[in-house]
Write a structure and sequence with these properties.
It is a single chain. The chain is an alpha+beta fold. Among the domains are: about 95-205, PAS domain (Beta-Lactamase), CATH 3.30.450; about 215-295, 2-Layer Sandwich (Beta-Lactamase), CATH 3.30.450.20; about 395-550, Reverse transcriptase/Diguanylate cyclase domain (Alpha-Beta Plaits, 2-Layer Sandwich). About 55% of the residues lie in helices and about 15% in strands. It is built from 17 helices and 16 strands. The protein has helices at about 5-75, 85-105, 150-165, 205-215, 245, 250-260, 295-320, 325-345, 360-385, 395-410, 430-435, 435-455, 475-480, 480-495, 520-540, 545-550, 555-560; strands spanning about 110-115, 125-130, 135-140, 170, 175, 180-190, 195-205, 220-225, 230-235, 265-270, 275-280, 285-295, 420-425, 460, 465-470, 505-510. The strands form 3 sheets. Strands 1, 2, 3, 4, 5, 6 and 7 form a 7-stranded antiparallel sheet that branches. A 5-stranded antiparallel sheet has the order 9-8-12-11-10, sandwiched between helices. Strand 11 and strand 12 form a beta hairpin. Helix 1 (about 5-75) packs parallel to helix 8 (about 325-345), helix 1 (about 5-75) runs parallel beside helix 9 and helix 8 (about 325-345) runs parallel beside helix 9 (about 360-385). It is globular. The N and C termini lie far apart (about 120 Å). About 35% of the residues are buried.
């Protein structure tokens, strides 16, 4: 018969083992669930980052075409004037420098063109980027009369917007006129319901791929661009034009599930490997699929679980050899540790773990504390990088979009006491061209630093290459005139600096939310218009200003 001491020791050991099993289970469960939550969050942030990078590139093209088309129509009082060859050629000659300037500052643009309808006295123009020098050179226009309207490779750019009746993004295609695989944004031109022609830009699809590959967040990440019809536009292992269903059937099934179930993280298997995938839709209608191997996702959690398991097993051996007295002292901290582990299992990573002592329970507590802190820092770091501009270290376009949604919510609730200031940095291209992009980056940082100093109580966002936005709350909106004056003084103070990249030139525009505004974007557009007015004032009466200020209604004799 066993002694009472032996029975007590056995009971104590069994109790200790039970407690350790509970701790191991809770810790493992917590890590697994935390991994699932963090993986979903991180993958969606990575996908959002790639989506924003591609959408910024696409939006730059749509905005550029819209600017040129608006200015063209503003300078054409009557479509009948286009039957006069001299007037038509003069209008084209005035339009082309503006188009060239806009296209030169739009990422990825390889060609820009304006094709008037065949019945008018002039055809238009087509300019293609010289890849060696980066300048746009004249290129022969395609004679649309020589091709069938259904011939996408030659004249799809002309007939697609006519059939749609509005501006469209064309599916990526191989343009046989230019021998390039590209995507095109084309817009029909109408004046008082009269069709004038087509205006558009082509983007070299290689530039889209370069943008996509430059923002990868995982080692095993595979990004795929595919149309709704299942045709592959880009995949690191496939050729453009391949059928996704035939090449990777599982991925095609995943794309259909995204269409049915909405935005979530799904799984698929290909070539014996297990993947997780998330989905986003680009502004041109293309589907972005981001896949990551399960092994990479599991790597961190596997290491953490292994560390916790080894530590707990070591503690178990020590506890088995411990005395009843040690067992009685260890049960109380174990109970507290279990409660903390349960909080972690429920997703509360801010739980305060009990202070660890010098014994094994203290070691386990410290291990869990380090694990939890590591997970928090890892997730926080990913979130910070997703919402911070890497060059200027102010908030980026993704953070600005979140802020705009919050302001839209405030407008719906009746809060209209805010303002928006839009800034556009002048002379960035001359600094880049004459002194290099390193000086250009320094110039951008100096201008951003100046903005931050003046608007030190307001958040600053970089929403484009040289464009910044400041959001003013109620208090700062009331001080807007003083702030704008301070901005002028700060800019003027840099004028005497010896180096061009140290002299800041910034166009600015301010708008305050009004009763008639239905969303924050209405305020932004007014601020953006005010900024462009300020830019014209700064630049003076250059060629573009003369173009902008052309009268809305003129006679043919006045123009000639």
């Amino acid at each position: 018969m066993r002694s009472i001491r032996g029975k007590i020791i056995l009971l104590n050991v069994l109790g200790m083992v039970a407690c350790l099993v509970t701790v191991i289970g809770a810790a493992t469960s917590t890590l697994v669930r935390s991994r699932e939550q963090s993986t979903n969050h991180i993958m969606h942030l990575a996908c959002l980052n790639e989506q924003d990078a591609l959408n910024d590139q696409l939006d730059g093209v749509t905005g550029s075409v819209k600017v040129v088309s608006d200015m063209l129509l503003r300078n054409l009082p009557d479509a009948e004037l286009l039957y006069d060859r001299e007037f038509a050629l003069m209008l084209l000659e005035r339009t082309r420098p503006l188009f060239d300037g806009v296209a030169s500052h739009t990422v990825g643009v390889c060609t820009y063109y304006l094709r008037l309808a065949p019945e008018y006295a002039a055809e238009g123009f087509l300019y293609k980027r010289n890849t060696a020098e980066g300048q746009f050179l004249a290129y022969p226009l395609t004679h649309i009369e020589d091709f069938d309207p259904d011939d996408t490779a030659h004249v799809g750019w002309y007939y697609a917007p006519i059939h749609a009746g509005e501006a469209v993004w064309m599916e990526p295609y191989y343009n046989e006129n230019l021998n390039l695989y590209m995507i095109s944004y084309v817009m029909p031109l109408y004046l008082h319901d009269t069709f004038l022609g087509v205006i558009g830009m082509d983007v070299d699809f290689r530039a889209v791929v370069d943008t996509l590959e430059s923002v990868h967040a995982f080692d095993t990440e595979q990004s795929c661009l595919v149309g709704d019809d299942g045709v592959v536009h880009y995949h690191p292992e496939l050729t453009p034009g391949d059928d996704l269903a035939a090449s990777i059937p599982a991925l095609s099934t995943v794309l259909q599930r995204f269409s049915d179930a909405g935005d979530q993280m799904l799984h698929y298997t290909h070539d014996g490997k297990y993947y997780r995938v998330v989905h986003a839709r680009l502004n041109n209608g293309t589907n972005l699929l981001l896949s990551v191997e399960e092994n990479e996702i599991r790597a961190m959690t596997t290491s953490l679980v292994g560390t916790v398991t080894v530590s707990v097993l070591f503690i178990a051996i020590i506890l088995i050899l411990a005395s009843m007295n040690v067992a009685s002292q260890i049960t109380r901290p174990l109970a507290r540790l279990k409660r903390a582990a349960d909080e972690i299992a429920r997703g509360n990573l801010d739980v305060q773990l009990p202070p660890g002592g010098d014994d094994e329970v203290g070691s386990l507590t410290n291990t869990l504390s380090v694990t939890t802190r590591y997970l928090k820092n890892y997730i926080s770091g990913i979130s910070d990088r997703a919402y911070t501009d890497s060059l200027t270290h102010v908030k980026n376009k993704a953070a600005y979009d979140v802020a705009m949604e919050q302001m839209n919510g405030g407008i719906r609730e009746g809060n209209r006491e805010f303002g928006i200031v839009v800034f556009d940095v002048n002379d960035l291209k001359p600094v880049n061209d004459q002194y290099g992009h390193d000086r250009g980056d320094e110039y951008l940082r100096r201008c951003c630093h100046l903005i931050c100093n003046v608007f030190e109580r307001s958040p600053v966002y970089r929403i484009g290459g040289d464009e910044f936005v400041v959001l003013l709350d109620r208090e700062q909106t009331s001080r807007r005139e003083a702030l704008m004056a301070a901005m002028d003084e700060a800019i003027a103070a840099t004028a005497s600096r010896p180096n061009p990249w140290e002299r800041c030139s910034i166009a600015k525009g301010l708008a305050v939310c009004q009763r008639e505004d239905t969303c924050a974007n209405d305020v932004f557009r007014r601020a953006d218009r005010a900024m462009y007015e300020d830019k014209r004032r700064i630049k003076g009466c250059d060629a573009r200003d003369n173009f902008d200020e052309a009268p809305h209604t003129i006679s043919l004799s006045e123009i000639l």
